Amino acid sequence: GLHHVLQTDEFFNVSIEIRNNTSTDIGGILRNIPIASNYGSIDRRLLFNGVLQQPLKNSIKPGETVKILIGAVILEKGEYEWGVTLDEFDSEQSHIARNPLRIRAF
Fold first, then answer.
1. Radius of gyration of the CA atoms of the chain, in A
2. C-alpha dihedral (101, 103, 52, 99), degrees to nearest 10
3. SS3 of the chain
4. What angle do CA 8, 1, 103 make, to 5 degrees?
5. Are the C-beta atoms of 30 and 56 separated by less than 8 Å?
6. Residues in contact with 73: Cβ distance below 8 Å, sequence separation at least 6, in sequence order
7. What is the rounded distance in angstroms from the CA atom of residue 3 to the CA atom of residue 9?
8. Cβ atoms within 10 Å of 32's Cβ, excluding its own
9. pLDDT tens digits in sequence order for the chain, 106 residues long
10. Model's pTM, two decimal places?
11. 45, 75 contact by CB (below 8 A)
């Protein structure tokens, strides 16, 4: 698949866009899931600005789109994947990003 190519120690933004295609408001916890290609720990390989799990500040209205940015820096060469899920409050529904971000750092 398509990889975004970055240099190590280069600051970049991960842009997350959530669109509510339902007829009701949705709210929940946004979970960012960065992983290294060898499925090892991302500790000491990746720094990010903020938290990987956060509740949405406001409910997303039907037809509305919300954009969230997270700053990050990759410290070690390799391939990474950044996935996102949204776990709805008051429901057992979980929404998974269709297209995870794939990164190759050199």
1. 15
2. 10
3. CCCEEECCCCEEEEEEEEECCCCCCECEEEEEEEEECCCCCCCCCEEEECCCEEECCCCECCCCEEEEEEEEEECCCEEEEEEEEEEECCCCCEEECCCCEEEEEC
4. 15
5. yes
6. 9, 10, 11, 12, 46, 47, 48
7. 17
8. 21
9. 678 999 999 999 999 999 999 999 999 999 999 988 876 678 788 999 888 999 998 999 999 999 999 999 999 998 999 999 999 987 888 888 888 899 999 9
10. 0.82
11. yes
Which two tokens mark 64? 């509305």
Q: Are 76 and 8 in contact (CB under 8 A)?
A: yes
- To which residue do tokens 């297209």 refer? 99
Q: How far is the C-alpha of 104 from the C-alpha of 106, rounded, in Å?
A: 7
